[in-house]
Design brief:
Layout: H1 2-20, H2 27-32, H3 35-51, H4 59-69, H5 83-91, H6 95-101, E1 102-109, E2 114-121, H7 126-135, H8 139-151, H9 160-164, E3 165-168, E4 173-176, H10 182-200
Antiparallel strand pairs: 1-2, 3-4
Helix pairs in contact: 1-3, 3-10, 7-8
Length: 208
C-alpha cells in the first residue's frame, strides 16, 4: 500500500512538473519531433531528473555527478531507480512517441539460455534522425550518431563519458563537463533509461 502511494505521488509530481513548467525544447528537437512528442520527451527527462536528484540543487551538477557515477556500474548507480516506476512512465507516453525512440528486439542470454525482450534504439526513426541532426554541429555527437548507425543501437552507457569527459593523457587527469544543454540532457536520459530497462527486464520474447 505504501509502495502504491509513493508511485502515485511520483507520477503526480511528474505530471505537475510537465504541466506547470515551460516545455523545454531545442531547434533540433523542433525539426524532428511534433509538439506532442516533445511534451512526452519532457516527461522522460523530468522522470530521469527526479531520479538523479540529490542534496545538490543545481541541475547541471546533478548531471555531472551522474556522468561520474557511471564509471563504476558496480557502485550504487541504479539504486535511485525503480523499474516499476519506469514502466509506468512509458504508459504516460503516446505509443507513437515511444516507438520513435525505442523498439524491442530479442536477446539470447547464454547463462540462462532464455530469449528475452531487449530494449533497443528504434533504427532510422525520429530519435535516430535527431542524433544525426545533432551531429551536424558537433563532432562528438557526430561520433555518437555514427556509432549508433553502425551498431543499429545506442552506444553503451559508458560511451556517454566519451561525450562529456575530457582526458588529459599527459597529466593523467580528466575533466567532466560542468554544463549541459537540453539536447545533452536528453541524450543522457534516453541512454540511461534504455540501459536501466535492460538491466532489470526479464520478460520472455513471445514466439509466434
Amino acid at each position: 500500500m505504501l509502495f502504491l502511494r509513493s508511485t502515485i505521488f511520483l507520477f503526480l509530481i511528474i505530471l505537475s512538473s510537465c504541466n506547470n513548467e515551460e516545455i523545454r525544447t531545442t531547434k533540433e528537437l523542433d525539426k524532428i519531433f511534433t509538439k506532442s512528442e516533445i511534451k512526452d520527451i519532457n516527461k522522460l527527462v523530468v522522470f530521469f531528473e527526479k531520479r538523479i536528484s540529490s542534496t545538490d540543487s543545481k541541475l547541471n551538477q546533478r548531471y555531472k555527478n551522474w556522468i561520474i557515477s557511471i564509471s563504476n556500474l558496480e557502485d550504487n548507480t541504479w539504486d535511485k531507480f525503480n523499474f516499476e516506476d519506469q514502466l509506468n512512465i512509458y504508459k504516460l507516453l503516446d505509443k507513437n512517441t515511444f516507438n520513435e525512440i525505442w523498439q524491442f528486439n530479442e536477446m539470447r542470454y547464454l547463462e540462462s539460455k532464455d530469449t528475452l525482450k531487449h530494449l533497443n534504439l528504434a533504427y532510422d526513426k525520429k530519435y535516430h534522425k535527431y542524433l544525426t541532426e545533432l551531429g551536424r554541429n558537433s563532432e562528438k555527437m557526430k561520433w555518437y550518431s555514427n556509432k549508433a548507425y553502425e551498431s543499429g543501437d545506442l552506444p553503451q552507457i559508458m560511451d556517454l563519458q566519451n561525450l562529456f569527459v575530457t582526458i588529459d593523457t599527459i597529466n593523467e587527469n580528466h575533466k567532466v563537463q560542468s554544463n549541459y544543454d537540453f539536447n545533452e540532457k536528453l541524450v543522457i536520459t534516453i541512454s540511461s533509461l534504455k540501459n536501466f530497462d535492460n538491466y532489470h527486464r526479464r520478460e520472455k520474447w513471445a514466439t509466434k
